Amino acid sequence: MKQNILTQESKIFLNLLDNRFSDRIKELLNERKLKENYSKGFFHSTKDIRETDWTITSPPREIEDRRVEITGPPVRKMVINALNSGANVFMADFEDSNCPTFDNCIQGQTNLRDAINKTIEYTDSRSGKNYKLNKQTAVLFVRPRGLHLLEKNFLIGEGISSKPIPACLFDYGLYIFHNIKNIIKSGSRPYFYLPKIEHYKEARLWNEIFSFTEREFNVPEGTIKATVLIETLPAVFQMNEILYELRTHSAGLNCGRWDYIFSFIKCNSNDRGSVLPDRNQVGMNQHFMRSYSQLLIQTCHRRGVHAMGGMAAQIPIKNDDERNAAAMAKVRADKLREVQDGHDGTWVAHPGLIPVAREVFDEHMKTPNQIDKQIYLNDLITRRDLSCVPKGECSEKGFRDNIRIGFQYLNAWLNGNGCVPINNLMEDTATAEISRAQIWQQLHFGVWLNNDKQVTKKYFFKILDEEVTKFKNNNKFEETKKIFTELCTSEELIDFLTLKCYDAL
Hints:
This protein has about 500 residues and is of the alpha/beta class. Helices cover about 45% and strands about 15% of the residues. The protein has 2 domains: about 1-315 and about 320-385, Malate synthase, domain 3 (TIM Barrel, Alpha-Beta Barrel); about 395-505, Malate synthase, domain III (Malate Synthase G, Chain: A, Domain 4), CATH 1.20.1220.12. The protein is built from 19 helices and 14 strands. The strands form 4 sheets. Strands 1-2-5-8-9-10-11-12 form an 8-stranded parallel barrel, surrounded by 7 helices. A two-stranded antiparallel ribbon has the order 3-4. Strands 6-7 form a two-stranded antiparallel sheet. Helix 7 (about 200-215) runs parallel beside helix 9 (about 240-245), helix 15 (about 395-415) packs across helix 17 (about 455-470) and helix 16 crosses helix 18. The longest helix has 24 residues, at about 10-30. It is globular. The chain starts with a helix and ends with a helix.
């Protein structure tokens, strides 16, 4: 399998990408540390881009209608089920829902290649059930890992001078190399989702990567299309600029709302006044979240591209009709808000949610999308709207939930699973980031909970021991506890849990 993916020819292409772009990636990551480049506000220097009229080429016909998109890791059975699910788009995810063991990454590439070639099959060893692709399948998008990660198992160069390739180039490069010709031959195009963008210069880099690829494979400029996840606080102030940089290759923007909440905490990590309430209180009804979503819709439609809604993390609840009905009602309300606000589609994490999401969008969106629906808000969305700290309480239950969920997810991740159902929600790295960042924030500022207990290290360790004892027999328990403790109690908030955990794989 490894030999079939990491061929000599594919290695040459990966080296080309690395030689051309890895230094640029390093520069951009260093620039993330410069406050003047990543201020929490709109840039004066790019005012003309925001205020002048320009549009992006209309989306290809096969992705005009993206009303329901399903996401998940590129696991073989999941790939087949997602492509057969009835969703318009399946986003195969090498990022937040995928634990990046080398086997997972290589197997994922194999699975996608086989799916594109229509040769993918899977037989369940327990049931004997065989899975194959239907004639009609969802359009395939791929999300590579973010700019900040390295692929330690693929080194560029030899000996002591060798270095790991940026993980984004590894994921992207292998997928493109093995599939671009067959994708185009089938009448489709390579489609991507781009995560964790923090600056329009990072979008510019991706545009250059796409253009370079098109020249290398002798395909027309603009063949590759990408949707950018707006999931960091700096990026929300640069949506016009990001679209402008990618205008040849743009397929719109998406509300990556869970990572956005995490980014909000991270960007305000030294501000006592920006402590968020319990995670379950920070929803799209909060002013700063609603403002972010509405600004994204307004920006995308003005420029002629899709404004995609966010993830419904709920999953169907078996053997409990009452609780399942309540969960589906939450999904329905969320999707109703999205379509009525003007979103052109939405995300789900489970095939069981597709009918609910589709029903809502079918009822309220009679056209393939709402791009022609210009959103004119009564009041301009300002920096204050986007930075408004939500009201709510910090409770003992919320603190315990964050510890239990964060620990449980991290343990699963260290054991090779990046997509984990916990408490009837599909947890991935983004939601786990919220849990551990909230713990860190409350501990850092000594927040008082609603039980009149102050969050101190002593209190944290007490609750940690109470909540994780039940997982003591899990594989890698002690390693999980050590890493989770460091993530929650470090002097400075660690940028990404994946950076801390990757070496433990």
